[in-house]
From TrEMBL:
Residue ranges annotated for the RING-type domain, each copy included: 11-51
A Pfam family this chain is assigned to: SPRY
Domain annotation B box-type: ranges: 82-122
Residues in B30.2/SPRY domain copies: 266-465
GO MF assignments: zinc ion binding
Record keywords: Coiled coil, Membrane, Metal-binding, Transmembrane, Transmembrane helix, Zinc, Zinc-finger
Protein name per UniProt: Uncharacterized protein
Alphabetized Gene3D superfamilies for the sequence: 2.60.120.920, Classic Zinc Finger, Zinc/RING finger domain, C3HC4 (zinc finger)
Keyword Manganese: no
Domain of life: Eukaryota
CDD domains linked to this entry: Bbox2_TRIM16-like
Residues annotated as transmembrane: 479-497
Keyword Transit peptide included in the entry's annotation: no
Amino acid sequence: MAVSLLDVLSCPVCTELFRDPVLLSCSHSFCRQCIKDHWTLSSSRRCYICRLASPQEPVSNLALRNACVSYLREQNMRTEEDGGLKCHIHGEKIELFCEIDEKAICSTCMDYEHRRHQTQPLKQALRQRKEKLKATLRSAENTLLSLQNGTSRDSKISSYIQSQTQMTERTIRMEFEKLHQFLRKEEESRIVALNEEEKQKKGHIERRIQGEILSLSDRVREAEQQIEDNAITFLQNYDSILNRAKYTLPDQELSSITFIDVSKHLGNLKYQVWEKMKDICPYYPVILNPHTAPPDISVSDDLTSVTSCYRQQDKPFPLHSNRMVLGSVGYADGVHTWDIEVGDSNHWSLGVCFGLEGKPTTQPLTPENGFWGLRRDGDSYTLMTAGMSRLKIKGNPEVVRVKLDYHHEDSGEKKRWRKVSFSNARSDSYIAGFSRVPLKKKLFPFVIPEDQTVPLRVIPANVILTVEQKLSFLEKNRVLLMVCCGFVMVIIMILLGKSDRQGR
């Protein structure tokens, strides 16, 4: 009796086409789930057909699985070729595809419901869409491969985050080591000063003790010698000898300078050390955001200066493609001032902007696009406006001060605007500014270095420490009291003048 292909590709247990076929050590194949269920019911690991034991785990029968897949595919194709796909409305063979409704139709459907629609042969539509799907799958497979191999963008971002963490941690440790070195040096110098004072004051006491020892030793020795004198001489000098022998240490007058000046060493100790630390801990009013720097601009480790580079750095993920670096913080209110050292650079731009989200690379840096800045190009200085207003400046400023302030406009109804001004920080001379900057968004400082190797640097701000003094009522209101007293004196003088006139 001939055995059909379907019989060969069917599981002996469930008699259906193999699903996930596995091969036992006896060379018989079964569905993985079928043989597991059989072993569970029979409580033994024996083959369903030959009853031989199978101590090893069954392995996948890939050849048999592929044969089953090919068999199903051929069956489906044969069904399609035999006209198995028929229109459920008209009962005719489906041979067309409507591109408008994206639906498989028969010829009668095309004559009625889809008469004015563009159609194509079903096999052609099927081939085109399969090719498109395969192309899409190739892209998905490449993406999957890049994720598995660690070459995808997200994998690179993850690696970059790790390198950023390591670099930042290294910098933090270096900065704290500088602070530790300062504190250790300051601690050592203060302990040395304390020891010096101890040495000085103990030395003074020890010298005084040595003087007393010498003086007392002389008296004791003299008294002992006079004891050996003859009786007449001893008795004649007895009173003077006794008085000299009655020596006691004189009471020394004590004062605070006798002891260690503890208040000098401990008074406001932490505050004094902190005040000294200002020299090694500068405060920068603007901290730059390194992620906004393009690959050809280098940002210093302390995030306070930028330099245009000869070659591009390895910065795979800049947040924008404009050639500028922004401050890390934007200002929505308040008065803010910062100084940018431009040195002898002949080409630079600086100012404030609304940020760079969604702004194209080629847009002009003008107020209309959210930029308010000052630019130097050789000997020419211009405000960054649509007309690029040229400015006349005496000398070339080495440090430019940027100030963000507010001003009111009294024209009918009061309006409040922001104001951006630029000045020469060294000579304190005004250069130019913008007076009608909107309030709607935060303003971020920006700098654009254009001279290679010449950095633009944020200047540290001067930090002034003040100690609040608690004044008495009289001290706080001295001027007011003086005015009141004067007013009272004037009234008294007026009243006295009136009484004199009345008495006459």
